[in-house]
Design brief:
The chain has 261 residues and is α/β, with parallel strands linked by helices. The chain has one domain (4-260): Rossmann fold, CATH 3.40.50. The protein has helices at residues 44-51, 74-77, 86-91, 98-103, 119-131, 147-158, 177-192, 230-233, 236-243; strands at 4-15, 18-29, 33-38, 59-64, 67-68, 81-84, 165-169, 198-203, 215-220, 223-229, 247-252, 255-260. A hairpin with a 2-residue loop joins strand 1 (4-15) and strand 2. Helix 5 (119-131) crosses helix 6 (147-158) and helix 6 (147-158) packs parallel to helix 7. The radius of gyration is 18 Å and the shape is globular. The protein starts with a strand and ends with a strand.
């Protein structure tokens, strides 16, 4: 098994003469749980799109699960990557039900009629929904689910194919306090499971960092400010530089909070 899940070397991204990412070097080892933290516009989502093989950089190399972007069939390789993002949710038909959303991940599809599925496929999808507290809503249409429920259904979908890399793009965005805390707890449980593959979670709030995530990449204006073990990298000085302000950072019960000062 490859010990490196993701490696970006000298990655840059330029769009319409604007530099979005510049000279990004980043390595995610198998089993690591990374937080990518930065302000709006820092390049976080672009970084994740490159890591998920949906966007080619302008320069640099991208190696994902032992294969290099540009030398691999991305359509097949993407099936080894589990992704949660708002852009995926926008692709779903509002009336498709939760169990089909999860089950169709087997073929990287959006509709159940595109492929044939077995009773075992549906049973696995139901088990995954149950893991994230969504079994009672298995037959409910996606449009009828709350924001928190939709995110949990997406998380269940990411595990349908036993992926080797999980990429979570701001999964708690737009959730109320109850929905956020429920999802953070479930992400902490996911991080604690040794069977969970290498995981990357993008956010711009330190209070959304689940317990169990152990590495941090700080981005500002497309540049890496710091990367490494979270306990060493998440400091008041580094966070202040990331958001261009003086901050106070506190840790309580394995959760973080930050305030302007």
């Amino acid at each position: 098994m490859n010990d490196i899940a993701l490696r970006l070397t000298g990655v840059g991204l330029v769009r319409d003469h604007v530099t979005i990412l510049d000279a990004v070097d980043w390595t995610v080892a198998a089993g690591e749980r990374w937080i990518v933290l930065g302000a709006n516009g820092s390049g976080k989502t672009s970084l994740l799109r490159i890591a998920s093989l949906y966007l080619h950089p302008s320069r640099g190399t991208v190696d994902v699960l032992g294969q290099r972007l540009g030398h691999v069939d991305v359509r097949a390789h993407r099936r080894r990557i589990g992704i949660v993002s708002s852009s995926f949710a926008d692709l779903l038909r509002p009336s498709i039900n939760a169990v089909d959303i999860v089950m169709t991940a087997k073929n990287a599809a959006l509709e159940s009629w595109w492929h044939e599925y077995t009773d075992d496929d549906r049973a696995r999808a139901m088990r995954l929904l149950d893991r994230f507290g969504c079994a009672p809503m298995a037959d409910r249409p996606f449009a009828a689910l709350s924001s928190g429920e939709r995110q949990r259904v997406q998380l269940a979908r990411t595990l349908m194919t036993d992926p080797s890399l999980l990429l979570l793009d701001e999964p708690t965005a737009g959730l109320d306090l109850g929905g956020r805390e429920d999802l953070v707890a479930r992400l902490a449980a996911l991080a604690a499971d040794p069977a969970t593959p290498a995981t990357v979670l993008v956010t711009h709030h330190v209070d959304e960092i689940p317990p169990g995530f152990d590495h941090l990449l700080l981005l500002r204006d497309g540049h890496v400010l710091a990367a490494g073990p979270l306990q060493d990298t998440l400091t008041e000085e580094a966070l202040g530089a990331c958001f261009d302000m003086a901050v106070s950072l506190e840790r309580r019960h394995d959760r973080w909070s930050a305030f302007a000062r």
